[in-house]
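Figure 6 in text form: structure in, sequence out.
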């Protein structure tokens, strides 16, 4: 790439597109802890309980007929934001797929 484009390195890369980068002798490590904290704040979930696993594989999502309706735009925003997290957390992909599939089904019915 250096042959085709003029490039320079001003300093060591620590943060890029919401991904924190740590470069050590042992390798390069990434995480999105700041992105997650920002998401929790954005969706007013700072007090949400933590879980050891992203989601039970036996969960069945049904329509809550007595509950209040949700804002589908905000729900899509949440799903999209979570999809971005899979860059450093591929273990949450199944959970996001289930939630996104549930959203698609709600829009079809």
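Output sequence:
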């Amino acid at each position: 790439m250096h042959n085709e484009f003029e490039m320079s390195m001003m300093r060591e890369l620590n943060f890029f597109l919401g991904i924190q980068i740590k470069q050590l002798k042992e390798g390069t490590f990434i995480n999105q802890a700041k992105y997650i904290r920002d998401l929790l704040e954005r969706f007013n979930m700072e007090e949400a309980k933590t879980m050891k696993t992203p989601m039970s594989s036996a969960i069945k999502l049904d329509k809550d007929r007595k509950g209040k309706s949700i804002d589908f735009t905000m729900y899509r925003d949440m799903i999209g934001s979570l999809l971005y997290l899979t860059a450093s957390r591929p273990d949450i992909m199944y959970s996001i797929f289930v939630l996104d599939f549930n959203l698609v089904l709600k829009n079809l019915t």
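Caption detail: The beta strands are 15-16, 19-24, 27-31.
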